[in-house]
Design brief:
By secondary structure, the chain is an all-alpha fold. The chain has a domain of 51 residues. The chain contains three helices and no strands. The mean pLDDT is 76.
């Protein structure tokens, strides 16, 4: 069993509700596509265990963000933080 911090629950519920709502919408390929989603997590590999391995999401790409990325000021990341 994986324990999730309480602050993760609202994001998880939002993603799940979008996923379940999209499954009822008529679509050509009947799958949900999320693009440019920013999830702020302390440990990417651990969070992928939940989203990919448990919930069945497919990861299209994980890439390094440049230090000039808008995410640093938007999410108030310290300059020394690694963002991907």
């Amino acid at each position: 069993m994986i324990e999730l911090p309480a602050r993760v629950l609202p994001t998880l519920l939002l993603v799940l509700s979008a996923f379940l709502g999209a499954s009822q919408t008529a679509r050509a390929d009947s799958s949900l596509h999320l693009k440019r989603v920013n999830l702020v997590v302390a440990d990417l590999d651990r969070s992928l265990t939940v989203y990919r391995d448990i919930l069945g999401f497919k990861v299209f790409e994980v890439s390094e963000s440049p230090k000039s990325s808008y995410s640093y000021p938007v999410f108030n990341f310290p300059k020394r933080a690694r963002s991907r």
